[in-house]
Structures are given as structure tokens and as C-alpha cells.
Amino acid sequence: MITQEGFIDYFSGFKRAENLNIELSTNGNNSINKVTFTKYGINWDIDVINEDSRLLLPIVRLNNTELIGRLPHVNICGVVCVHDSEGLLVDTNDLDRAYFLYIEESINLLIDSYEYHFYLQDDTDLYNEYQGYFCRNNDRQILLGDEADLETGDEVAFYVHKNKQIMYVGSLEESVGNTYFIKKFSNELTRQTGVYIKVAHEILPPQNQQDINWDYIKSDIICNDQTITNYIKKRTKKNKDILLLISIPRLNQEFNTILLVQYNASTCKLYYSFPKRHSERYLLQRNGCKMDFDDFKVGVIGCGSVGSEVIYQLVKCGIKNILITDHDSFSIDNIYRHRLDISYLHENKASAIKHDLEKKLPYINVKTCRSDQDKEFLSCNLILLITGNLNHCLNFNNLRKDDNIPVIYGWNDGISTGGHAILVSQYERGLDFLFERNNYEFNYKYSLIQSNQKISKNLVGCGGDFVPFSYHDSCQTANQMVSLVLQFLESKDKQNIRITWFGNNPQNNAATTYYEDYKDKLLVKEMF
């Protein structure tokens, strides 16, 4: 139970604030309602708003209006941001002390913020939190393209959706990544024009908990710029909305804050928001992709269960230039272990994957070709062979030795026993080094199932044989292949690497000695 005595006992050694006091709520739940203290001659007043769930920490809100807009980590509503959503683990068996700890950290944060602004005159955090301060993100307004090449006074297109709730800002025609929007909304958008403003320096929010208004826009952002002033006069004279796309710099940050302002001079109504970005540069970084893959090209031979998963993962890792091939068409038999869905039945797998990716993702360049002998594969920095045919793998290994193009081979071992991913970048020891001859046939040294036994199944009679493995198995193998791709790209030391992951015991089939010796490790990775 939270008590005045417990609070005083917890804060008995707290020296940063004076006259620390709490006010308990009167609703009978023994929670803290308010905390007051004195520091730097200011009587600080914060509310502690308790949530119903015991799993949530309280909200701490500053009531000193004169400080809001001047302290970082405090938004326009006065809410103090102590941690991100997963920044503090709470022992729900000792919730009182967790509340006290949270209040202590909130007080420390407020005092630190005050010292940075008023004594050290360091507003770095406040500048960089400009967007978060206003709590006005808008998922339904999207900034298309990249604003980096725009200058103050440049015309910007605003495409407003017919339902008035969605707006696209930028050029729909010029950006390759905007194909999705052109196709989906071309007949539903109304084009308006506005201007771009690149603010010369960082700015602070309005003081005293004030929201953005037209006077603030004019004094702190437009600053008597003649081009913008003339645009405003023309729009006002025609009684049309003034549309501004404003770029506000952040200290030592790659991306500026983007502010969208819509103002009507006759009604004096102002609307603002911070639109979501849609530029390639932003989206790749936001989603954890690497930025140095622009000139890297991957060829993928085989678009089956493993191959399709690999392709989708590569694209979502930021590898945008991909050449793919597969002569086979997509069959209903593989519907539950393939990335494609039922809408692509009977279509060529490679063509269907290209279409599906371009429909779903911007800024990618997926090409198809007829066979793995296509000369365009010679322009690839890395080739992935994922046909599941070991004869094909060995033959391809011999053909590519003279080309000296690194190749990653991958396949499932069947009946969910595991799978393999092998990177060959040094051909002194190629793929054939991992095979051994037994009379007239080759066997992979690290197979998980003994050769010369039937592992296929048949559900419908002659001609219906198939090797049983699941989508989960294919994802496991694909994961290891993609990890090899990323390791190859990021490593200067190009080594040959083999990976084997281990799955279920083969049950009615005989496992190899290698499987029995290493199955408990789940995954083996080694150089060769």
C-alpha cells in the first residue's frame, strides 16, 4: 500500500529536491495523485496519473506551464517521457517501490532538463524532439520521395484523397517508388500546389504550452522570406488554402523534421501535422536495412519453397537489385510451403514473384530471365542456386569456377531432418570438396539421411512422388542462406562457409552418423 510514510522513507536520502511532498488520491485506491517539490526557486507541480492495469506505470505530467516548450522530454501536454515503452521492467509484487522509482526518475529528468536549458544553454534534445513534442504524427499523410534536393520557394504537389483524410506530398510522376500510389489512387486524388520552406536553423516550440499558430509560423519559420510572402498573398487574394511543406533541421541528425501546414486566411483556421516519410533513404534505415547495397546485384536460380523465401527476405534486407529465374510454374501442390498465394496458380514462379514484390514494395529492381545460362548472371556479385537438385549444384559449381563468381547453394534434406547452406567464394575448394565418391555416385559428406533409401511419399499413385518437408523447414534453410549473403557483403575476408541446421529425427529412415553426432547442437557452421 502506498502511504505518506512509505514515500518519505523511500526519498529520505534524495538530495536533489527540497520540500518534497505527495498528495494521495481520494478514491480509495491508495495511489499518488500529485507530487510537489522546490528546486532553483521554482515550485514544481506534477500530477501522477495512474492507469487501471497493474502492468502499466503511471503517467507523470508537469503542470508548470511556463516550463513546457523549454524542457526536453516533456511534450505539449506536459507528459514527461522517462523511458520508452519497454525501458523499465516492473516487479508487480512490489508495485509501490516501482512507482516511487518512476517518480524519482521523473524528478531527476525534469531537473536535468532544466539545468541543460537554463544553465548549460544546451537545447540539443529539445531541437531534436520537435516532432515528438507536439504528438501529432499522421499515418495517413505521406511524404513521397526525398526532400533533400528541394529549396525554399520550390513548388510542391499535394495530392488529396477524395475522403479528405489521406494526403500525398511530393511528385507522384517522378519517383520510381511511388508506382503503388499511382496505380491505386490515380483516379481518386485531387492535385493542389504549395511551397517548400527549408528553415535555416533549428527552432524551439512555442513557449508557455502554446500550440503552433499562424503568428508562430510567420515569425519563427517564414521570417519575411519574400518568395513565401508573395505566395501567401496570392493564395489569400484567391481565398485558397495556404499549403506549406516545412523542413526543420535537427542537430547532428541525418533527417530533418518535416512539418505540413494548411492555413486559410479568411477563416484563420490552421491545421498542421508531421507526415510519414516515403523516401527510399528513410524507409531502408527505418526498417533496419543496410544502405550500402545499391550497387550490389544478386542472382537467384530456383524460386521454389526455399528460393521464394530467400528472395523476399533479401529484398526486405535492402538488397534491391535481384535477377531471378525458374522454368517451373506455380502448382496448387505447393500452396502451403511457398511464398506465393493462390492468385498466382499456373503462372511462372519467377514472373509471379517479380509481380508480387513490385505490387507490395517500392524502390526495388527485380528482373527475370529464362535460364541459369543467361549471360546477365555474369553481372551479378553473388549467385544463389536453390533448385534442390545436387547434380545441378555440382554441375553449376564446375561451370562457375572460371567466372569466379561466388555462389551460395542451399537445399532441404527432406522429411524435416534439416537443411544446408554453403557459400563458395574461393574455388580452390569448391562445392565438390564437400562431396565424396562412392563407386559411380557422389554423396554429400554432411548429409543427414543415409543414401539409397526411399524418403519420398506418394498420395495419388504413379507419378505423384514428392519429398516431404514443410514451409518451416524451407524458412530455416532460407534464413541460413540469407545470413550467408549478409555475412558475405559485410566481411572483407571472403571465406568458404558451410551451415547445417538440424531438425527432427528421421524416424523410419536411417540417419547418418553426422546427424547423430551433431543433432543436439541444432546448428553447425564452419569454414572449409
Give a written overview of the molecule:
It is a single chain. The protein is an alpha/beta fold and 528 residues long. The chain is 26% helix and 25% strand. The protein has helices at 4-10, 95-119, 124-128, 130-134, 179-185, 214-222, 226-237, 280-286, 305-316, 349-360, 390-400, 471-490, 513-518, and strands at 18-24, 32-39, 42-49, 59-62, 137-143, 155-161, 167-169, 189-198, 242-248, 257-264, 269-277, 297-301, 321-325, 365-368, 382-385, 407-412, 418-424, 435-438, 441-444, 457-458, 465-466, 497-502, 523-527. The strands form 5 sheets. An 8-stranded mixed beta sheet has the order 14-13-12-15-16-17-22-23, with helices on both faces. Helix 9 (305-316) packs across helix 12. The longest helix has 25 residues, at 95-119.
Give a topology summary.
Elements: H1 4-10, E1 18-24, E2 32-39, E3 42-49, E4 59-62, H2 95-119, H3 124-128, H4 130-134, E5 137-143, E6 155-161, E7 167-169, H5 179-185, E8 189-198, H6 214-222, H7 226-237, E9 242-248, E10 257-264, E11 269-277, H8 280-286, E12 297-301, H9 305-316, E13 321-325, H10 349-360, E14 365-368, E15 382-385, H11 390-400, E16 407-412, E17 418-424, E18 435-438, E19 441-444, E20 457-458, E21 465-466, H12 471-490, E22 497-502, H13 513-518, E23 523-527
Any key phrases for this structure?
single chain; alpha/beta; Rossmann fold; 3 domains; eight-stranded mixed beta sheet
